UniProtKB/TrEMBL annotation, chain A:
UniProt cross-references to Pfam families, sorted A to Z: ABC2_membrane_5 (PF13346)
Record-annotated membrane-spanning stretches: 72-94, 106-126, 133-154, 174-196
Protein name per its UniProtKB record: ABC-2 transporter permease
Entry keywords, A to Z: Membrane, Transmembrane, Transmembrane helix
Automatic annotation (TrEMBL), chain B:
InterPro entries: AAA+_ATPase (IPR003593), ABC_transporter-like_ATP-bd (IPR003439), ABC_transporter-like_CS (IPR017871), ABC_Transporter_VariousFunc (IPR051782), P-loop_NTPase (IPR027417)
Domain called ABC transporter: residue spans: 5-230
Gene Ontology terms, MF aspect: ATP binding; ATP hydrolysis activity
Keywords annotated in UniProt: ATP-binding, Nucleotide-binding, Transport
Keyword tRNA-binding belongs to the record: no
Glycoprotein as UniProt keyword: no
CDD domains: ABC_DR_subfamily_A
Annotated protein name in UniProt: ABC transporter ATP-binding protein
TrEMBL record, chain C:
Gene Ontology terms, MF aspect: DNA binding; DNA-binding transcription factor activity
Transcription is among the record's keywords: yes
Keywords of this entry: DNA-binding, Transcription, Transcription regulation
InterPro entries, alphabetized: Tscrpt_reg_HTH_GntR, WH-like_DNA-bd_sf, WH_DNA-bd_sf
Name of the protein this chain belongs to: GntR family transcriptional regulator
Pfam families named among the record's database cross-references: GntR (PF00392)
Record domain HTH gntR-type: where: 11-79
SMART domains named among the record's database cross-references: HTH_GNTR (SM00345)
PROSITE patterns xrefs: HTH_GNTR (PS50949)
Length: 201, 288, 123
């Protein structure tokens, strides 16, 4: 399983060189820190999907001693692992540029990432291969286009909700939102595993 | 365990194509050649053996185990070579090894480097720069480096020049000195099979026509030539396919001894090559 | 052990092998107890399928020319050469009788027959 997760980095060795400039670009563009955290998390997992498109990766992985459940688990767990790495790296980059950010930015950015991953991962397995790149591109354009608005919208909503249910502590609220996102993510995982189990290669 | 692979009444339907009622055995310690024209169902069958496809009906057993509960144990013992590259083409062999090797418990680095040297493959060049023959050798080096007991090759010789094909056959033959190893080898080039196949399975339009030893095939199938007046509704039954010409008939039989009994010296009976068998069965309506 | 296989011969390959091994044993080229290559190694060396050498070895075992010990290999069996020679002689006698019958039918003299035999034998 760890091998499957590690695989994404070996595959993207060359791309990883562009990873830091990619994050820096978003920082210099003065994007909302939450957006920076979001795109930084998206980078590796979605690049991996794009890369897997090129080769008959599913045939290879399924011919190796892995079960289909493991292959999907590696995708979903790997996304979390790379997300944690991305948080660390992005935080360092933000600090280096003297950009202020809060835990709230991290929470919003990565909740959005998990939500986005939960909604798009199944698509890669439902859609016929060949469309995947289009999915990545469209999703990314949409995200880059309306991402900041969503962040602002959600940030406002969150304050609104915070005001509305003032009797709850902020941490309870974040925990609650976090739990909901995790549940959606888990459901997506289960759904994808179900589809993948029946897929023909 | 005599059979490393057993397919029982296996069926799989697609839009406009189906394989049906496949009963196939791959014997341990031997080379089984899997022949059939393009689109006959060879790849579909191989995919079901590897659980890349799940059959609609029937049973697939590999090493006597089923995929439902022993998927990893089975695949641990299989080496695969596909028609075409399934490895990441932008990567070099070193990186591909780093991805594939940890998947196998019995991966043997020394063995891998031995094959790399033997096949004269560059470790640091991207796979996409490899010729077709080199790609096949790279796949083979990977397939052979975890002490697999069953090697499955799907059309490994397609698109290779004759010298490469010879080299591959030599290598496979070398592998067979180890009696625990079995090879399943699909091809539409029958001359690949003349030399190394011990057993033959022939698939045609999604149906397994036979699965016999090369000796049984040689004994049962024959080309029969004779004068047209020998043919009638009864005698025709001995033939799989008949080609009539003004000079006489030429036919394929799958029951050589019966033909000998019926016609005796009045016909010429010749050994049928695999190509003859494929050709006649392809054009043939089964009369028998 | 040297074996020459002809792919264009009408004689099946396993028969070519059995015949050549038999004659090597009968002429004394292969001595009793001598190890012969495993069927898998022989198949590789001759570039033929394993099942072919397997069949050849099975036939040789059946007719008592060789025996195999699992894990050790195959060996030339003890031959009662006298008996085999006598059997062969008997076969030759029968065949010659047929030749004589045929010769008499077309009026071929003993002299002519001997000349024919000499020519064929020395060919």
């Amino acid at each position: 399983m760890v091998n499957l997760i590690r695989r994404d980095v070996i595959l993207q060795k060359k791309y990883l060189l562009t990873y830091i400039p990619f994050i820096v670009f978003f920082i210099i563009m003065e994007s909302h820190p939450a957006l920076t955290f979001l795109v930084a998390s998206i980078f590796i997992p979605f690049n991996a999907f794009a890369y897997d498109e090129k080769a008959e990766t599913n045939i290879l992985l399924n011919s190796l001693p892995y079960t289909r459940k493991e292959i999907i688990a590696a995708r979903y767990l790997g996304a979390i692992v790379y997300m944690v790495l991305a948080i660390g790296l992005t935080s360092l980059a933000l600090l280096a540029f003297g950009e202020p950010f809060t835990m709230k930015d991290i929470a919003i950015g990565n909740s959005l990432f998990l939500l986005f991953a939960a909604l798009t991962f199944p698509l890669f397995y439902i859609l016929k291969s060949g469309h995947t790149f289009t999915v990545v591109l469209l999703s990314f354009l949409i995200l880059a286009g309306i991402g900041p608005q969503i962040v602002i919208f959600l940030a406002e909503r969150l304050t609104a909700i915070t005001d509305f249910i003032a009797r709850f502590s902020v941490s309870t609220l974040y925990t609650g939102a976090g739990v909901i996102v995790m549940v959606i993510y888990a459901l997506s995982w289960g759904f994808t595993a179900f589809i993948y189990q029946r897929k023909a290669f | 365990m005599e059979n490393v692979v057993e397919l029982k009444n296996v069926a799989k339907k697609f839009k406009g194509f189906a394989v049906e009622n496949i009963n196939l055995e791959i014997k341990q310690g031997f080379v089984t050649g899997f022949m059939g024209e393009n689109g006959a169902g060879k790849s579909t069958t191989i995919k079901m053996i590897l659980n890349l496809l799940q059959p609609d009906a029937g049973e697939v057993k590999v090493f006597g185990l089923d995929y439902h509960s022993h998927e990893k144990a089975i695949k641990e013992r299989i080496g695969f070579v596909y028609d075409g590259n399934v490895f990441f083409e932008g990567l070099n062999l070193k990186d591909i090894k780093r991805i594939v090797a940890p998947a196998y418990k019995r991966w043997d680095d020394d063995l891998f480097y031995k094959y790399i040297e033997q096949f004269e493959l560059p470790l640091n060049k991207a796979i996409k720069t490899f010729s077709k023959g080199m790609q096949m050798k790279a796949s083979l080096a990977i397939a052979l480096s975890h002490h697999a007991e069953l090697i499955i090759l799907d059309e490994p010789t397609a698109g290779l020049d004759p010298i490469f094909r010879r080299e591959l056959l030599d290598l496979l033959q070398e592998l067979m000195v180890d009696g625990n190893r079995s090879i399943f080898f699909s091809t539409h080039i029958t001359s690949d099979l003349d030399r190394i196949a011990d057993y033959l399975a022939f698939i045609h339009k999604g149906e397994l026509i036979f699965n016999q030893s090369v000796h049984e095939v040689a004994e049962n199938y024959a080309l029969v030539k004779g004068k047209l007046d020998l043919l009638d509704r009864d005698t025709e039954k001995a033939f799989v396919h008949i080609r009539r010409a003004s000079t006489g008939f030429e036919a394929l039989t799958d029951n050589s001894s019966e033909v000998k009994k019926t016609f005796g010296d009045r016909v010429v009976i010749e050994r049928a090559s695999l190509e003859d068998i494929m050709y006649y069965l392809k054009g043939g309506i089964h009369l028998g | 052990m040297q074996i020459i296989i002809s792919n264009s011969s009408k004689e099946p390959i396993y028969e070519q092998i059995t015949n050549q091994v038999k004659s090597a044993i009968l002429t004394g080229e292969l001595q009793e107890g001598a190890a012969i290559p495993s069927m898998r190694k022989l198949a590789k060396d001759l570039q033929i399928s394993v099942i072919t050498t397997k069949r050849a070895y099975e036939e040789l075992e059946k007719s008592g020319f060789i025996y195999s010990i699992v894990g050790k290999g195959s060996f030339v069996a003890e031959q009662n050469l006298e008996v085999i020679r006598e059997k062969k002689l008997h076969v030759i006698e029968e065949q010659l009788n047929a030749v004589i019958t045929n010769s008499k039918e077309i009026g071929l003299s003993l002299d002519e027959l001997q000349q024919l035999l000499t020519i064929l034998y020395e060919e």
